[in-house]
Amino acid sequence: MANKSYNIAVLPGDGTGPEVVNEGVKVLKAAAAKYGFSLNFQTYDFGGDRYLRTGEVLPENAAEELKKHHAIFLGAIGHPDVKPGILEKGILLKLRFDLDQYINLRPVKLYPGVPTPLKDKGPEHIDYVVVRENSGDVYTGMGGTMMKGTPDEVAIQNMVYSRMQVERCLRYAFDYTRKRNKKKTLALCGKTNVLTYVFDLWERAFHEIGDKDYPDIKREYYHVDATCMWMVKNPEWFDVIVTANMFGDIITDLGAITQGGMGIAAGGNINPKGVSMFEPIGGSAPKYTGKNVINPLAAIACGGMMLEHLGEEAAAKAVEASIINVTSTKLKSLAAGQMGYSTTEVGDLVAKGI
Ligand code: IPM
Ligand code: MN
Fold it and tell me: Is pLDDT of 1 > 90?
């Protein structure tokens, strides 16, 4: 039988994106060689530099072009010379929407050897996954302004959810909790005491679907403010958390810092039936660009998530094991410039460990 072969679209993006993506690709190549599959990489230059050069944020056919691939591997989007919002909305959010990547999967896992700001907590306490809904909420852009620039200005940005959006996200989260097979507990994070329309919809759907199709999964509910508190005080309570887009954005930065910060936090924008895009949670870190000091482990971990998504589970596990070996025996710190190794050296260490 011929080796399996996957076409990967690579979007290095802005700032340190290209540097961390290079190390991710290096490790992916090592995993492919070891586990007997092949990866064909095709690079696209979407990002701030291209926008400043051409005036075009994203080519019109970008989504169609990217759909030809099995997965997308993205570095970072965000350029210091471009007004905030243009690239984020025009590239990142547009791709998430156009490719209907309705799940943003963000594991919060503290690896051995990585310092956490949470007192008395270790890898045995911090290991859960946030399933962030990725297509609705205030991210849809529905709303508007009136009398802009006057003292009477009004601005509205709506939290929008359809039953379909809520249901497909919840089903993904229940299935994921079942497959993960740890505490078999799914926690809904919402705000039913104030957002009495939107989270009423979420809560009803959560219990209806849970009762009907997932009797083996235990259900919990937390308000988003309390969720933040427990993520700090008792992170070991959590197995899988499912939440709406905006709350998910916020709590996953909190989660990321408890697992060692932006140098390590990985995520995937998932379309279970289409093409998914893997990206580190951190940004483009422009001040470190080109210095070979940024930590590439988040991007490398994204590569591991991508392999798992493609069905190369043994290779994915090897990537994670090699990352853990590097964090627990090599790195002095995860912070840029303080690792004791350069960006490329960290990539070499992980690749060699595969
Ligand atoms: C993230 C980012 C994005 C988001 C921004 C850059 C639009 O913060 O991926 O978490 O809000 O989703
Ligand atoms: Mn964010």
Answer: no
Residue nearest to atom 10 of ligand 1 (CA): 249
| Residue ranges, CATH 3.40.718.10, the chain | 1-99+275-354, 116-259
Nearest CA to ligand 1 atom 4: 249
* CA of residue 317 to ligand 1 center, whole Å: 27
Asked if 341 and 331 count as a contact pair (C-beta separation under 8 A), the reply is yes
Atom of ligand 1 nearest to the CA of 77: 6
Q: Residue 282 has what pLDDT?
A: 86
Task: Give the tens place of pLDDT for each residue, 134-181.
Answer: 999 999 999 999 999 999 999 999 999 999 999 999 999 999 999 999
Choosing from 88, 140, 251, 269 the residue with most ligand 1 atoms within 8 A of its CB, the one to mutate for a pocket test is 88
The phi and psi torsions of 12 (rounded to 5 degrees) equal -60, -40
Residue nearest to atom 9 of ligand 1 (CA): 281
Maximum Cα interatomic distance, the chain, rounded to a whole number of Å = 70
Starting at the earlier edge strand, list the strands of the sheet with 240-243: 37-43, 4-13, 71-76, 276-280, 266-270, 103-109, 127-133, 240-243, 185-190, 218-223
The DSSP secondary-structure symbol of 120 reads: T
Distance in Å, CA 91 to ligand 1 centroid: 11
* pLDDT at residue 204 is higher than 80: yes
Residue 95: CB within 6 Å of ligand 1?
no
Question: Which bound ligand lies closest to the C-alpha atom of 93?
Answer: 1
The answer to whether the predicted template modeling score (pTM) of the entire model surpasses 0.85 is: yes
Distance CA 207, CA 188 (A): 10
Name the CATH superfamily, with its identifier, for domain 1-99+275-354. Answer: Isopropylmalate Dehydrogenase (3.40.718.10)
pLDDT digit string, tens, across residues 257-307: 999 999 999 999 999 999 999 999 889 999 999 999 999 999 999 999 999
Architecture of domain 116-259: 3-Layer(aba) Sandwich (3.40)
